[in-house]
Amino acid sequence: MHAFLQKTAWTMTVPRPYSCFHLLFCGVGIILVGFLVHILCRKCYKIPSVPFYSCGLVMALGELYKQLFLYQVVNQGCYDWWYFPMQLCSTPMYLCTILIFMHKYSPITRTICTYLQDFSLLGGIMALAEPSGLMQPYVTLTVHGLTWHLILIFIGLYCHRCGLAGKNWREYAKTLPLLTVFLAFASIINVTTHGQADMFYISPFYPVTQIFFYQVSLLIGTGAGIGFYIFSICLGGWIIHYCLGKL
């Protein structure tokens, strides 16, 4: 495994946000995502859950490769908790896997699909719009990060176009307990690792590290900054939910 990882450790100059590489990769990717959603939603009455299984498997294998690559190649046998997969953009990987075991017409399944519609789209759009954290000095890590967030956009659009997600505010509200569970897990990891992790960017040991929110945290304090950041996530999910509900 170590030899395989070393063979895939192709280095590259770290791409700049909004460079030709970034814009071309995202532009072509979004076109392909839209085309795939259009094709699959014509058949979703036959295979409504297969794309979730496929996305869950691809994301899980990609995350496994990323974790092994970071451990073996980048950090030379030391695990970096900073990259543990418990961010907003990581949650669809777990939920797509959970959907394998859920009845496709249950209320819980609809809540999960509503969460995926709202927060997968939010995470995918925001990360590709501000991609500095995705750009790495290794080809595979950079491609993994960009592709991951294109998959998030695919998942969100698929849930919407196939009518698997909710449209009214009550159904959006049902996603908030699920988000709270993920926030709780993230907080536990942040506290138990004593600042070595920054899951969901809500570590109590330093200001929110996301762009703009970092300045807000410095201005109003770490605790209030975290509260403002969580509120902004909820607001962003609601805006996407509302806009898609009007389409």
Overview of the molecule:
It is a single chain. 66% of the residues lie in helices and 0% in strands. The chain has 247 residues and is an all-alpha fold. Helix 2 runs parallel beside helix 6 (139-161), helix 5 (107-129) packs across helix 6 (139-161) and helix 9 crosses helix 10 (222-246). The mean pLDDT is 94.
Report the structural category. mainly alpha
Q: What is the C-alpha radius of gyration, as a whole number of Å?
A: 18 Å
Low-confidence stretches: none
Please summarize the sheet with the most strands: none
End-to-end distance, in Å? 48 Å
Summed up, the helix count is: 10
Helices and strands in order, then pairings?
Elements: H1 2-7, H2 20-41, H3 50-74, H4 91-98, H5 107-129, H6 139-161, H7 169-173, H8 175-192, H9 213-220, H10 222-246
Helix pairs in contact: 2-6, 3-4, 3-6, 5-6, 5-8, 5-10, 9-10
Summary tags:
10 helices; 247 residues; 0% strand; mainly alpha
Task: Summarize the structure in short.
The protein is mainly α. Helix content is about 65%, strand content about 0%.
